[in-house]
């Protein structure tokens, strides 16, 4: 029973790392990170430019983007790196231990999930704040543009898939 739990937790931790690395190489490595204009879906300025934003709206959105950028930089790079190192050390201690500790593995996995959830909630909140700048008409137009893009992506596939084929 313990060997099975050990295998499950190890695969739950290692498999996403392997698949993530493989997908990065499959899509051309660093070239893949060209921004949201190169992907289907997502949120990009190209669509926002089609909404005929007022100068005031543009200024507010720019201010929000800059504030978000500064907040990320302000998270004390050293502190963020220390957290990442501590997390890495926990994973290493777990997988290199003489005996597998399923309880510790479960706790570590829960921590990882909680961090992901918190990050996604924060991103959704920021996106909501940005959308609150739009008028109801602009929101309706945004939905239409996003649906059109989604339809186009479903018919043609993402742009990056065409580059590599």
TrEMBL record:
Q: What is its main location?
A: periplasm
Q: CDD domains in the record, alphabetically?
A: CpxP_like (cd09916)
Q: Which Gene3D superfamilies match?
A: 1.20.120.1490
Q: What are the record's GO terms for cellular component? A: outer membrane-bounded periplasmic space
Q: Which InterPro entries match?
A: Cpx_auxiliary_protein, LTXXQ
Q: Which UniProt keywords apply?
A: Periplasm, Signal
- Which subcellular locations apply to this protein? Periplasm
MF GO annotations: unfolded protein binding
Secretion signal, residue range per the UniProt entry: 1-26
What family, per the record?
Answer: Belongs to the CpxP/Spy family.
Q: Which NCBIfam families match?
A: PRK12750.1
Protein known as: Stress adaptor protein CpxP
What organism does the UniProt record list as the source?
Answer: Vibrio qinghaiensis
Name the gene: cpxP
